[in-house]
Amino acid sequence: EVVLTQSPGTLSLSPGERLTLSCRASQRLDSAFVAWYQQRPGQAPRLLFYGTTNRAPGVPDRFDGGGYGTDFTLSISRLEVEDIGLYYCQQYDKSPWTFGQGTRVEI
Amino acid sequence: EVHLVDSGGDVVLPGESLTLSCVASGFTFDDYTMHWVRQSPERGLEWVSSINWDGSETRYAESVKGRFVISRDNNRESVFLELNGLTSDDSAKYFCVRDLMGAFDYWGQGTHVSVSS
């Protein structure tokens, strides 16, 4: 199965800063089949991006998704307090669908 | 507005069975493939099973194949997951999830399954 490795494990930043989260796949992926999720404390995951760059409804445009091949990124241009939580990448190119282990974003 | 309400989680003994339910509203249920995804501190997020719009195609993670059964009732706008032969590795929060071409665009609030002797 495809293993997704996310880095860093934890990011501690200040409001207004820019951050980039990384997701590296153990096999080359079609970028049409990579997604990112945000999970705020105590909540279910929320879809941010699908098909690498397609922003889900309601996601602020300070979030951006990118990448191809084995390396994918999620960027937040200006960190806000509401952005704290866990971020997961997911691939749905090759069965079984798999998730990364997550990156924790702290302020 | 899309809503998915999961239920049925419980504390059970190893080897016992349980059935989880998910009631959907706010969208045309039989237009969508549905999934179950689970989350635990030990295993993180793990896709468990999926069922297509009419129930004719089902898929399972290797870790649950032969023990779990997914089904749906489009008249009741519901999807179910029957968990059999439970082990401590199955302890997790189980989420009912709507499919968006393989991504997961709406999630239930989750229901807890704890397997402990």
Characterise this structure:
The complex is a heterodimer of chains A (107) and B (117). Chain A has 107 residues and is an all-beta fold. Helices cover 0% and strands 54% of the residues of chain A. In chain A, strands 2, 4, 5, 6, 8, 9 and 10 form a seven-stranded mixed beta sheet that branches. In chain A, strands 1-3-7 form a three-stranded antiparallel beta sheet, with no helix packed on it. The model of chain A has no long low-confidence stretch (mean pLDDT 95). With 117 residues, chain B is an all-beta fold. Helix content of chain B is 0%, strand content 55%. Chain B has no helices and eleven strands. Chain B has strands spanning 3-7, 11-12, 18-25, 34-40, 44-51, 58-60, 68-73, 78-83, 92-100, 103-107, 111-115. In chain B, strands 2, 4, 5, 6, 9, 10 and 11 form a seven-stranded mixed beta sheet that branches. Classes of the chains: A mainly beta (107), B mainly beta (117). At the A-B interface, β5 and β9 of A face β5 and β10 of B.
Layout of strands and helices, then pairs:
The complex is a heterodimer of chains A (107) and B (117).
Chain A: E1 4-7, E2 10-12, E3 19-29, E4 34-39, E5 46-50, E6 54-55, E7 63-76, E8 85-91, E9 98-99, E10 103-106
Parallel strand pairs in A: 2-10
Antiparallel strand pairs in A: 1-3, 3-7, 4-5, 4-8, 5-6, 8-9, 8-10
Chain B: E1 3-7, E2 11-12, E3 18-25, E4 34-40, E5 44-51, E6 58-60, E7 68-73, E8 78-83, E9 92-100, E10 103-107, E11 111-115
Parallel strand pairs in B: 2-11
Antiparallel strand pairs in B: 1-3, 3-8, 4-5, 4-9, 5-6, 7-8, 9-10, 9-11
Structure in a nutshell:
Chain A has 107 residues and is mostly beta strands.
